[in-house]
Amino acid sequence: ADNGYKLWLEYNKVGNPQLAVAYRQQLSYVIFPAASDRLKAAKFELLTGLDEMLTLKPVDAKSITNGQTIIIGTPQLLKSFSIAVPDSIGGEGYLIKTTLIGQKKCILIAANSDVGVIYGVFNFLKLIQINQSISKLNISDHPRMMYRVLDHWDNLNRTVERGYAGSSIWNWHKLPGVIDQRYIDYARANASVGINGSVVNNVNADALILSPQYLLKVQALANVFRTYGIKIYLSVKFSSPVELGGLKTADPLDPAVKKWWADKADEIYSYIPDFGGFLVKANSEGQPGPQSYGRTHADGANMLADALEPHHGIVMWRAFVYDNKVPDDRFKQAYNEFKPLDGKFKDNVIVQVKNGPIDFQPREPFHPLFGAMPNTPLMMEFQLTQEYLGFSTHLVYEAPLFAECLQSDTYTHGKGSTVARVIKGDFNKKLITGMAGVANIGADLNWCGHPFAQANWYAFGRTAWNSDQSPAVIADDWLRMTFTDDENFVSPVKKFMLQSRENTVNYMAPLGLHHIMGVSTHYGPGPWVDNAGRPDWNATYYHKADSSGIGFDRTGTGSNALAQYAPEVKARWESLQTCPDEYLLWFHHLSWTYKMSSGRSLWDELVYHYYAGAESVKQMSRTWEKMEGKIDAERFSEVKQLMQVQLNEAITWRDACVLYFQTFSKMPIETTYPKSQHP
Ligand code: GCU
């Protein structure tokens, strides 16, 4: 076994003999003249997949054999068969259908571009991977978002900020001379789920990345990615003109600074003609930015956008800003700084907003900026790497987290203005659109550290392509492609995957608790942290537990952060009658004896969630033990061991938090839940 190196492109042998025969028959001949690099890559994938799954080597043909041929291409090829490809699928969409050409039945994969063909081929292979019939196909699909990007927080010394899967996969030392097979496999995996961009270096950027030496290395990666329709982007440090260029200032309105960036952009494009653009973290956590010169985020972003515009590049400007010198609630700062800038950004700027207002916590309400900047493109930023979700030792399937945020109703354009619709540009068709995922990839043999963490990379791609796809469907496909099609495996494992994020919320931060993890490592519990160096890094800043109760009052009697949401959302979360338990302590400070909708006191409810969370990990590992023999022994054993670690840590989280909070509540633990539910 490869211990998970092949990801969801495992291409397992089709086990059902009848099905295999049927597949082989329908795919005996292939019409797929592949002239370009991209088409060659698609064809290589098709042939590899068919060979591995079916031991099939289809015959290259020029004409159709009834019922036994697959024909693949763009209008260039297809016009000779009188097949038109509809404009409606766009440049990146594809069709997969059973069709009649001159009375002969065949399977058609059609797209308007070579990239569309790549997507079509991967999705066709998926049908076989999940053992679906291919005899009556009628699929038409296209991405709903333009920029579907992985953000690597990889440093040039190969450490990965918040990375838990080994060192960076980019071997800067050996680049550009050595092209690791991993780069190609990385690009294949991304293309298979429609990811079309990669920011290869950390948002806490090193100015050196823009030096000619590094640009040559970046160019080598870009050449690999291009074949798979993936553009390369760089995180840039705002002070690069000073650090790299020797200028006295990085003031975005200074003519010499503008010229430096314009020249740098020209230089980059001379190496990489289809370079994607810049990602910028500015005036956040000590990074330099336009505010250091009395300018706004818009001044900074637009200056870079001017430099990239002649080459069609974009600027992804992050809204993750907060500052302990600003005395207001940290929750509110991004909105306060960015909302007044709505409409002031150039067309090729997209503001990248984290899903929630604080920082990728196990559960956050959606960020109040979504819907609040109708004239500005907003790019969703999810975190795939599990900084606050147990690193790569805890099994947490994140698709339900993505869906929860994306399906939240912002009400900013009336009922039904979900976050997904906002970022898709449904309310302003002129805007560019996108979604970013902070990568969880490293040099570990299995790429992501935990075999199940691969599902988060996979689910991110699927969600960025079409945010309406359900977490259950995505998990189902991923399990079948990654492990086995055995229903006795897929069904129980899918069930616990779908519950896994809620389990972790329960044993880490239930009922709307947030930012109570260990200081700086962000691993393990730390609700007692009150000396992290600045108040907005203290756990006590967020939970505000004392003898009277617990929670952050963000209503009108408190920080009034709720006023940043549309009136309907504000009203719902402000009222204790309608605020869901999940968000309660995000917005309210309540007494320990406050009566919950369950009938329990707040204290009892809290304890109940912590215990249920730890118990659910035990249940999950029991289910896993029954999977022995259904998949390869290596991954079975690795997951089994990881679950034991997770269980121990869930118990630590539970006990640490319950005992810490008990010092304030002074209420008993044993009477709080039925004995039968005691783990
Ligand atoms: C978190 C994380 C940092 C990271 C930052 C960011 O605060 O802990 O390591 O740099 O997010 O998103 O910029």
List the helices and strands and how they pair.
Blueprint: H1 17-26, E1 29-31, H2 37-54, E2 59-60, E3 69-73, H3 75-78, E4 94-101, E5 104-110, H4 114-129, E6 138-141, E7 147-151, H5 181-192, E8 197-199, H6 212-227, E9 231-235, H7 240-243, H8 255-271, E10 277-280, H9 297-308, E11 314-318, H10 333-338, E12 349-354, E13 378-383, H11 399-406, H12 419-423, E14 434-438, H13 454-465, H14 471-482, H15 487-508, H16 539-543, H17 567-574, H18 584-587, H19 602-625, H20 633-665
Parallel strand pairs: 1-2, 1-3, 3-5, 7-8, 7-14, 8-9, 9-10, 10-11, 11-12, 12-13, 13-14
Antiparallel strand pairs: 4-5, 4-6
Helix pairs in contact: 2-4, 8-9, 13-14, 14-15, 15-19, 19-20
This protein binds alpha-D-glucopyranuronic acid.
Structure overview:
The chain has 679 residues and is of the alpha/beta class. The chain has three domains: 17-141, Chitobiase, domain 2 (2-Layer Sandwich), CATH 3.30.379; 147-482, Glycosidases (TIM Barrel); 506-552 and 589-677, Alpha-glucuronidase, C-terminal domain (Alpha-d-glucuronidase, C-terminal Domain, Alpha-Beta Complex), CATH 3.90.1330.10. Helix content is 37%, strand content 10%. The protein contains 20 helices and 14 strands. The chain has helices at residues 17-26, 37-54, 75-78, 114-129, 181-192, 212-227, 240-243, 255-271, 297-308, 333-338, 399-406, 419-423, 454-465, 471-482, 487-508, 539-543, 567-574, 584-587, 602-625, 633-665; strands at 29-31, 59-60, 69-73, 94-101, 104-110, 138-141, 147-151, 197-199, 231-235, 277-280, 314-318, 349-354, 378-383, 434-438. The strands form two sheets. An eight-stranded parallel β-barrel has the order 7-8-9-10-11-12-13-14. Helix 13 packs across helix 14, helix 14 packs across helix 15 and helix 19 runs antiparallel to helix 20. The longest helix is centred in the last third of the chain and has 33 residues, at 633-665. The chain is globular and about 80 Å long. The relative contact order is 0.08. The model has no long low-confidence stretch (mean pLDDT 97). Alpha-D-glucopyranuronic acid binds next to loops.
